[in-house]
Amino acid sequence: MTPAALEIQDLTCGYGEAMVLRGVGLRIEPGSITAMLGKNGMGKSTVLKSVMGYLPKRGGKISLFGRDITSLAAHKVAKHGVAYAPQEQALFPELSIRDNLRLGLFTDADFEPGFASVVQHFPFLADRRAQLAGTLSGGEQKMLLIARALMSRPQLILIDEITEGLQPSVVTRLAAALKAERDNNGTAMLIIEQNVDFALQVADRYTVLKRGEIAAQGVASAGDAQEIIHRHLRV
Ligand SMILES: Nc1ncnc2c1ncn2[C@@H]1O[C@H](COP(=O)(O)OP(=O)(O)OP(=O)(O)O)[C@@H](O)[C@H]1O
Ligand SMILES: [Mg+2]
User: Fold this and answer.
1) Could you say which of 66, 127, 144, 177 is the most buried, measured as most Cβ atoms within 10 Å of its Cβ?
2) Ligand 1 center to residue 81 CA distance, Å?
3) For the residues of 44-103, what is the DSSP string, one character each?
């Protein structure tokens, strides 16, 4: 069996004494997108933070492409082909587009090839390298955040609630960019979403997190996916 892009087994972790995740299991195949849904405070962002090495684990195992990264520090996890677009403000508003994108790289030598690939998804970046990130519109900032995650041409991207507060035309552009990235470059993704339509349009599989446990999962194109997800989001 080829190793999963991301495999989480029986993960338990939280903040201090408070356990947020209880026995979470998840497997994402290379080149596929999984959407994670769930109400506020259920532990979705905590899953991504624990993969990125920001939180100590109480139990369980996390592997990227067959390599055990459970105990690795954050700066070492980032060298295993994974990029992260966090939920909270993560751009530097006083820095230019170019400098924000450079922060997604380990070495400046990778800038031009990385930039060439992200401009294909987000052409507006091409002529605006010098513009300060803080002067971009909300939608453009979200696109820049995804572009920064793509700069290192990762094999796996973790994206936390990218569509929050965006108008439908920007959501459509982001959906097209993520699907093109998967289809053209075989990039796997774990996307956390509150927008069920966006999630099911972009993802191959879905998973629902409820009070720190996986409550449901399945194929995004299945006829009952909408109904199962909405049922879990209601109660
Ligand atoms: N740094 C922290 N210290 C202590 N508790 C935290 C911390 N970050 C999150 N929590 C708690 O952990 C639980 C899960 O939070 P998390 O951010 O993972 O939820 P979420 O599903 O991403 O929610 P949302 O949809 O609102 O983003 C919440 O009860 C939250 O209060
Ligand atoms: Mg969150």
Assistant:
1) 144
2) 26
3) HHHHHHHHTT-S-EEEEEEEETTEE-TT--HHHHGGGSEEEE-SS--S-TTSBHHHHHHT
Average pLDDT of every residue of the chain: 95
Given ligand 1 and candidates 11, 12, 13, 15, which is best to mutate, with the most ligand atoms within 8 Å of its CB? 15
Q: Is 38 in the pocket of ligand 1 (CB under 6 A)?
A: yes
Task: Give residue limits of the domains in the chain.
Answer: 6-234
Residue 46 Cβ contacting ligand 1 at under 6 Å: yes
Residue type, 155: Q
Q: Please say whether the beta carbons of 42 and 149 come within 8 A.
A: no
Tokens representing 142 are 């979200």
| Joined tokens for residue 161 | 């609630």
Question: Which CATH class for the 6-234 domain?
Answer: alpha beta
* Residue corresponding to tokens 């999962």: 217
Taking the model in full, what pTM does it have?
0.95
Name residue 158's beta-bridge partners.
Answer: 84, 190
Q: Can you say how many angstroms the Cα of residue 64 is from the centroid of all Cα atoms in its chain?
A: 14
What is the distance in A from the centroid of ligand 2 to the CA of 115? 28
Q: Are 121 and 167 in contact (CB under 8 A)?
A: no
- Nearest-angstrom CA–CA distance, 205 and 217: 7
- Chain segment 65-113, per-residue pLDDT in tens: 999 999 999 989 988 999 999 988 889 999 999 999 999 898 888 899 9
Q: Where are the beta strands (DSSP E) in 108-224?
A: 156-160, 188-192, 205-210, 213-219
